[in-house]
Design a protein that fits this description.
Elements (H helix, E strand, L loop, with lengths): L49
Length: 49
């Protein structure tokens, strides 16, 4: 089902400008990221977005 399948439905969208990006290693940053409470299990902080 898409938005076109529902009569009268108008989806709300925002214009986005994407910036160029590059990969970064996480391990050197872990100590600086204060939202990661358990530094040995740092991946848990990223599991649910």
């Amino acid at each position: 089902m898409t938005a076109d399948d529902v009569p009268g439905f108008v989806p709300w969208r925002i214009d986005v400008d994407y910036l160029p990006a590059q990969s970064a290693l996480i391990k050197p940053l872990i100590a600086q990221l204060n939202f990661i409470t358990d530094k040995t299990h740092w991946g848990a902080a990223f599991r649910f977005g």
